[in-house]
Amino acid sequence: MTPVESVKFFFKVEQRGSTVSREIVAGLTTFAAMSYVIVVNPMILSSTGMDRSALLLATVISAVAGTLVMALWANLPIALAPGMGNNIVFAQVLVTQMGVSWRTGLAMVFVNGVIFLLVSLTRWREKIIRAFPDTIKLGIQCSIGIFIAYLGLKNGGLVVANKDSFIAFAKLSDPAALLAFVGIIVTPVLIVLRIPGAFVISIVGITIGGLFVHHANGQAVTRWPEQFFGLPAMNSELIFALDFRDFFAKFFLLLLVTLYFLLSEFFSGTATLLAITRRAHLMTASGEMPNAKAAFTSDALSSIVGAAVGTSTVTAYVESVAGVEAGGRTGLSVVVVAGLFALSMFFAPLIAIIPPQATAPALVLVGVLMMEGLGGLDLARPESTLPPLSMLLFTVCTGDLMVGLSVGCFVYTLTVAALRQWAKITPMVVGLDAVFVVFMVLRNAIV
Q1: What is the pTM (predicted TM-score) of this model?
Q2: By C-alpha distance, which of 255, 295, 254 is closest to 274?
Q3: 169 - beta bridge partners?
Q4: Under a CB-based contact definition with an 8 Å cutoff, are residues 20 and 332 in contact?
Q5: Rg of the chain's alpha carbons, rounded to an integer?
Q6: How many CA atoms within 13 Å lie on the side-chain side of 230?
Q7: Do the beta carbons of residue 39 and residue 84 sit within 8 Å?
Q8: Residue 242's pLDDT band (cuts 50, 70, 90)
Q9: I need a labelling partner for 269 at 20 to 30 A (CA). Which of 251, 293, 296, 439 fits?
Q10: Which residues on adjacent β-strands are paired with residue 314?
Q11: For residue 281, what is the enclosing H or E element?
Q12: Is 345 within 8 Å of 232 (Cβ atoms)?
């Protein structure tokens, strides 16, 4: 058996209707869509006093480790890295506002990771997913889709703040916004024509075009790097810098924010894993995730590794859907992602030049494609229609998937109760509602 045949056999490439070349292109697409984390995560967390060069190393190590575990154990096309959002809460709320040291914060992330791991090993995470009604599962996929699309529009500069209507469409007299807009309307043509690597071509093309397009201040959209590569700074300051003594000494002070991190990461991470698997058409005949225990355990282990090397919670990235849309169906695609993350330690200056306008078309189109399930809604059944539509509305308006998920579950329970469909209100559904009530209370107290 040749090496290529061995790879195909191990990852079940042909069994899932894919090819090695398609998996490689999918990996390139996913990496291009999420590579911003290499630059953004260290920038956010360095405000806590953590060394920025050490943070870049921690970001890459945690992304490589988490993604490889998911690829080799769960064989799913899902990449992991330090999560955006929770890193901001870590830096701005936990450290800056509450005055907790970053070492104590990393201990909290580590403890949460251990709790994730125990829950994953006992299959409770799988039980929770089974408890979600089908209409909520559909709402999760579509809500993540609309969130990704909104993220693409916002990052690409096409959705801007407006004092009268809060948000508005950008003026296309801004060359940077026009570049993103052209990308969004041209990229679908590449997809319709089934051009291999359509998203990668789009990202690379807009990045190159950005060298010749300037913002209003005269600065190029794509900044030419001062250097193309450099040796990573091997700073071990963050390795195992966990202050458990201070964490347990301040346990009651940190209880609310710890529970907030635990609940938000648990459910948003679970929702992301479910949505990507559904979009890749990898669900089993019984409607369950394949290799669910391995996937959830990989997610949990990633957070433990992330805290150990010095970064905030590591989680599954919704941008993995870009790779799925490019044809990724196995863990091989994210092995490519892990390899590119490893190489990024040497090419960080070059990767950093990819502007948000270049990834905007991929994110917008991936988000739109994820909402295809809305076509199957039965408008005559409000208990099937109202929950996912409520989730969509609250997710896009608040930019918070957890808020959307909470509202969707509340609406589902109340509508089936109003219709006296008592059999659908299972103990697990009621338990999930109770957990989301706790989350909303914690969110109000912390955010």
Answers
A1: 0.78
A2: 295
A3: 159
A4: yes
A5: 21
A6: 15
A7: no
A8: very high
A9: 251
A10: 82
A11: none
A12: yes
